[in-house]
Amino acid sequence: MLPILLAVIFILVIFIVVIAGRPDEFIVSRSANIAAPPDKIYPQVNDLHNWKVWSPWAKLDPGAKTSYSGATAGVGSAMAWDGNNKIGAGKMTITESDPGKLIRLRLDFEKPMKATNTAEFTFRPAGGQTVVTWRMAGKNTFMGKCFALFVNFDKMIGCQFEKGLISLKSLTEQ
Known about the structure:
Strands 1-7-6-5-4-3-2 form a seven-stranded antiparallel sheet. It is of the alpha+beta class. The chain has helices at residues 2-20, 38-46, 51-54, 56-60, 142-150, 153-172; strands at residues 25-34, 65-69, 78-82, 89-98, 102-111, 115-126, 129-139. Strand 3 and strand 4 (89-98) form a beta hairpin. The chain has a single domain, classed as START domain (Alpha-D-Glucose-1,6-Bisphosphate, Chain A, domain 4, 2-Layer Sandwich). The protein is built from six helices and seven strands, in the order H-E-H-H-H-E-E-E-E-E-E-H-H.
């Protein structure tokens, strides 16, 4: 019995050491070239009411409860959501808005796990197109580090960013 207990303790110690060695922060980033000027794309992101048209999470749970508060668009504009297990619950608030250049958001997730992250969209003109970059960064908690051992977070979130950028492209290139 003692050798089994020692083996289990050894495995747990190794697991904890591996988790502790994982990065303390994460960044997920995707970009797309959109054949439209920044001033046509920017309002689709700066007004959170528009997200239901192009956001990949709106498509994952069309029946999610959403509410808006603060400004109509730009700094102080906020959207809260409560949906199925694919989108969870939380609130996002625009904290910085530089027309045609940058939008930064604070993301406060409540479900499935509590977390606070930062997302940003940058809009860079490039030869008659706009390079739109969607980026999210945050701290890796112990549970987040455990989760990342089994699930490729960059691929999981990045895939949704790619879908959203494709929708944004389709919407603004019309």
